[in-house]
Inverse folding.
């Protein structure tokens, strides 16, 4: 295997087509699924040379925890659907790579066991494990889940806020895939209430959640809270105002509201809105080290991967995920060195620019105002953001 794409192909060969569709699919026409990946193809890296830099260092510190790579494992449900060891295998691979894993609330292994597997795979090293949470209408259930995450040793909560209802995957509907097969269940949802022995609760989604629920969550836990799924800059400002510790810019890999922008497209606006007060992370469409480097250069502190982890796990279990993380690490190191950067903090917006559209040939030249506007998302919001907030009016 030489790239994340190789794992995608291998996974498709191995998986039941219904499960392969569950992993690959998105909401409705999957416009956002495609947009996430395509966004990276419309940006170019502009390297610096002869900077006399050391070998690149990929360490990143977030909320007091240290990771050896800026690539984190975004929360994905049902790992045992694609591999018998499921989340245990993923956790071991992540820990060995020094990568932060966000354990999904919809995990097919309980978070306590996921944490134990991670610890055993990296003895003497504390690789952060975070827990992804869907707020539940019954506050007692939310509290019980938080307690489980704390007991497991998770060091942050990632609250997914883009899911007031479940995204409509037409692939799943056509395939009749609505539930886990016999023998698999969401282990974090078992026995959440006294007197419910063996009962597995359903994850409940609700459009009634509001900022008050985030405030209440902060009252019951001292863990840093990140919000996953913020796309609007005004919500980013509100998040800061409500004491949120970080944002994971995400559109759920295009699995919730179809036709929302690519995450890369909104990143500069969110970064500008937050103005350095809290870290901004991003996921969606990252398939190469150069994708990661572009997002990092535009202000993300770390980037998450979802489907590639599922593909690698399906293709070759723990070994597959290890190899995937190794490949992405190599690709990022390579891109950093070729950009003349010794560390992630040397990745700056001037190293990224929109692909030349060709439309302004003979005009202001590459990087001129025309290219900045037309190259990324045309003259609308996306173009304006890249032109003004990030690339300095295209005059850089
Ligand atoms: C199979 C699958 C399951 C997912 N399950 C969850 C989940 O349980 N909770 C959540 O917040 N996001 C979930 N996501 C979204 C991911 O966390 C992430 O936002 C997305 O996959 C990133 O895009 P990428 O797949 O292009 O890397 C899931 C995504 C996939 C592909």
């Amino acid at each position: 295997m030489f790239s994340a794409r190789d794992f995608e192909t291998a996974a498709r060969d191995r998986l039941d087509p219904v499960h392969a569709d569950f992993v690959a699919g998105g909401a409705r026409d999957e416009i956002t699924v495609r947009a996430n990946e395509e966004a990276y193809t419309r940006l170019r890296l502009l390297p610096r040379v002869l900077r006399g830099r050391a070998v690149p260092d990929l360490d990143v510190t977030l909320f007091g925890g240290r990771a050896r790579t800026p690539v984190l494992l975004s929360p994905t449900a049902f790992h045992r659907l694609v591999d018998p060891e499921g989340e245990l295998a993923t956790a071991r691979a992540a820990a060995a790579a020094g990568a932060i894993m966000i354990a999904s609330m919809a995990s097919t292994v309980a978070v306590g066991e996921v944490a134990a597997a991670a610890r055993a795979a990296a003895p003497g090293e504390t690789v952060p494990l975070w827990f992804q949470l869907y707020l539940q209408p019954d506050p007692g259930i939310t509290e019980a889940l938080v307690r489980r995450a704390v007991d497991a040793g998770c060091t942050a909560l990632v609250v997914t806020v883009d899911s007031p209802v479940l995204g409509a995957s037409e692939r799943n509907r056509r395939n009749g895939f609505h539930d886990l097969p016999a023998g698999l269940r969401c282990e974090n949802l078992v026995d959440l209430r006294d007197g419910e022995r063996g009962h597995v609760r359903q994850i409940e989604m609700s459009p009634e959640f509001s900022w008050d629920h985030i405030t209440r969550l902060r009252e019951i836990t001292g863990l840093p809270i990140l919000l996953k799924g913020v796309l609007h800059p005004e919500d980013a400002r509100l998040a800061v105002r409500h004491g949120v510790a970080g944002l994971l810019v995400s559109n759920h890999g295009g699995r919730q509201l179809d036709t929302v922008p690519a995450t890369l497209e909104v990143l500069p606006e969110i970064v500008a809105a937050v103005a350095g007060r809290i870290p901004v992370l991003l996921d969606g469409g990252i398939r190469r080290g150069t994708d990661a480097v572009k997002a990092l250069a535009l202000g993300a502190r770390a980037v998450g991967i979802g489907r590639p982890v599922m593909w690698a796990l399906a293709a070759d279990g723990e070994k597959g995920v290890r190899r995937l993380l190794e490949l992405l690490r190599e690709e990022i190191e390579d891109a950093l060195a070729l950009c003349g950067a010794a560390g992630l903090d040397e990745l700056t917006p001037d190293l990224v620019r929109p692909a030349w559209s060709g439309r302004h040939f003979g005009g202001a030249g590459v990087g001129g105002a025309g290219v900045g506007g037309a190259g990324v998302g045309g003259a609308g919001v996306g173009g304006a953001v890249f032109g003004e907030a990030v690339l300095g009016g295209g005059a850089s």
About this structure: Residues 356 and 371 are 6 Å apart (CA to CA). Residues 307-339 form the longest helix (33 residues). Residues 23, 36, 74-77, 104, 106, 132, 160, 228, 250, 252-253, 255, 283-286, 305-307, 310 surround flavin mononucleotide (CB under 6 Å). The chain has a mean pLDDT of 92.
